[in-house]
Amino acid sequence: MSSPDNKQKTGKKHSPKVATILSILFAGLGQLYNRRYIKGISLIVIEIAFLLTALQSLNYGIWGLRTLGTIAGTDHSIRLLVIGVLSLITIIIVAALYVFNVYDARKQAKKIQNGWKPLKLKDTIRVAYDNTFPYLMTFPGLLLMVFVVIFPLIFSVLLAFTNYNLFNSPPRNLVDWVGFDNFVELVTVPIWQDTFISVFAWTIVWTVVATTLQIALGLFLAVLVNDPRVKFKKIIRTILILPWAVPAFVTILIFAAMFNDEFGAINRDIIIPLIGGDGLPWLSDPLYSRVAIIMIQTWLGFPFVFALFTGVLQSISKDWYEAADVDGGSRWQKFREITFPHVMFATAPLLIMQYAQNFNNFNIIYLFNEGGPPVRGQNAGGTDILISWVYKLTFDTNNYAMAAVISIIMGLLVSGFAFYQFRKTRSFKEEGEI
């Protein structure tokens, strides 16, 4: 039998540097050097299988991503772009596994050098299962996210740097990389510049005004119904939540008919009897169309906010209001110092998402009047917001590259705003840090 001193000397001879070099040369060799035979053989088999089956495909994918094809009519640029993005994602995943292989070999070699003895096979399987269980459970979701979120995101970003449009559509024509030309055209070419400024400004106004109105109306009604003097609270709450129960697209289509310039109930039964004439041009004038859409969104959005605020208001302790009464606080002071801060603190993340949702609220814009009416000198309608403009560029004019450019700008705006506001509202802090 070997003495503990001999075991310690054997461990000292075990070199992490050697294990690292071997694992860099070929995945699994470092594990074999560490006498982790099952793991080492598994990694070797995986790398051999990868080199034999996927290396040529990945090389073709990277070639396609770099060139987007060389022979018009034969090479399909968009198909090559898709294969190239998938190859790029695969390479990143394989590189991450290879780095893990090197890190694992070096880490285990250091433990062996310090006198650690490998566990028996049964104990190794148990420890490995305990340590990897959370990763095994999250792996399907991660894999789904890669192909449902990350892949389309990378594809759309890369598309913004090409000239993919109606006149450069494969397989008849090849798509080329054009760098930042699309971004430059968006802010320099008159028709693109005017349209972008107009649509972007209206998108901001629409988001701020419509969302603020629905939040303000929901808060006002919630505070009103929560007043102790109001009777039949359950019936009133049920009535106020009813607009939420009706599918939004049904409500929008009904309102579109009601706001029709010629036969709509708003003009025929309300506007004309009051002011005469032919009524207001709700669908043919951009200003009136925008006012109508804001009112409709306020109607659609306030029930959710009302229900949200109603639940929060009932959680506020009555002792706070009684203490305020003792101090002689007015109704406005109690609302400003107690009700409003408590409600905003509890619901701020959800309210922020209301702004982000309305920023990309395609349904109401398209279903009401398809982003119209037309505007002279622009390739977007008077009520088009960025998301509906992207839709038209994609499906009506087939200008995919410019649609991708605008999508990138939208994504940066929404994510930047949401991240900043979440930080400000302390949504990312732990409970003990608040």
From TrEMBL:
| Example GO biological process | maltodextrin transmembrane transport
What is this protein called in UniProt?
Answer: Maltose/maltodextrin transport system permease protein
Q: Which CDD domains match?
A: TM_PBP2
Q: Molecular function (GO) terms listed?
A: ABC-type maltose transporter activity
Q: Which domain of life is it from?
A: Bacteria
User: Which InterPro entries does this chain map to?
Assistant: MalF_N, MetI-like, MetI-like_sf
The alphabetical list of record keywords is:
Cell membrane, Membrane, Sugar transport, Transmembrane, Transmembrane helix, Transport
Which species is the source of this protein? Virgibacillus salinus
